[in-house]
Amino acid sequence: MADQGELGAVAFGEPAIADGTAWPMASRRRGGTAEHRDRNVAAAMLTYFGARALIMNRTCRPAPSRPTSSQVSPRLDAPGRDRKLKPALPYSISSKLARVVTSVAVCLIMGGCSGKEDVRTSPPAVAPSATTIRSTAATVARSERWKVIQGPRLMATAELVDVVAKGPRQVWAAGSEGGAEDRGGIVVVERWDGARWRRSALNRDREILLSGFDVGATGDLWIVGDHEVIHGDGQRWSYPRPSKLPDSSVFTDVSVDGDRVVLIGGDEAGEGSFAYEWAGHRFEKRLAAVQGDFAAVTARHGQVWVVGNELRDDCSNIRPAVWHAVRGGKYTRMLLPDVVGGYLNQVWATSPADVWAVGGVGGKQGEFECLPESQESGQPEPLVMHGDGSSWQRVGVPGGGSLTSVTASGPDEVWAVGSDRGDAMIALHFDGRNWTREYAYASRLSHLAVTTVPGTSDLWAVGAYGADTDYGQDVILRRR
């Protein structure tokens, strides 16, 4: 491999420098005239200053940065940064130094004008610093009403996946920390007491990919994920997994309505989806072997709604699906508008006559070979559906992207959150007549969930930024 002197010389079309004097403190000297050394030094210094001028020129631009500059940390030695130059060196400097300076100049030119930005990924700042966010349609102002709230300090690769509110001083969030792509993390439960978030005690030896969470009227907590079901009061915990379920069964969500606890999930071996209900001391099967995916459940007002998607054998693709049951009744699939490639991620009911479900159409969860031409690009569209107790309708909403969570305090106060096509966090609001759209966070948040706070107009949202990196970080947002 050529040494640095040869690299520098070849880059500028000159013969490699082979003579000159070493540093003054070195005992070994090489041959060469003073004039030759002076020419080497002069050429190297001209190359160095030429490289600096080229890099600082406006025509040599770096690659575009991420939407929020505070969410990446540029290298302190990045090309083009201002530096203090050392004083002029004496004529006794060696041509070895000249070769080094020349090589540095070559590297500066190649790095400064390569069109690539050298950055190190870092966790997000406490709050997005950008005041505007680029969407696929236009530049839209970020709503200043959404604020990032600091929670307990968690380990790397932390994420929050669900949030539940019973009142202004009774808000819970659940997730995990210290996980990885091939395994779950340590379960985390946090509670907002009106002033700060505090962490609940949990068995730190149990690791799961947490997917669902709810809180009962007495403050008891239900947590599900992977093959686990966890129940407790924040201090003492039990693990009442349904009996006779195969090891391939995984749980996706749980919902509590008084003494009724509904647990949903599916079988990784392809045996279909299922629903179980708590019978006071154990879970009993209510629905099994459903050919579809159960994504979320809500149990309220004595009734249950399960949402997800239905799978078909032919090329008609997936369809959004809703299953409904009253207490003690049979689970039945509801008749929905036909939406090719549609799927539902979350459901919320303010009453049996006011039920909202959200998700998307197309994108990563759609099978492209069966989608309409308008959706073959893979760009998702938001999907919002409303049930009035007798039928379900698709509701048009502004913009693109997909939705992951929905909440409501009444028919004229509905919120849905998700990501737009540019991967910024969006929040859609329905006032009973019209939908409006605002941006809450400058980056996409995985596992994004939102809830209203009873008795207030506040919202809490949780998720994870950079969940697929070593710097994944939990995010808590509040809108007042």
TrEMBL record:
UniProt name for this protein = Uncharacterized protein
Record InterPro entries: Beta-propeller_rpt_TECPR
In terms of superkingdom, the source organism counts as: Bacteria
- Give the region (Disordered) as residue ranges: 60-84
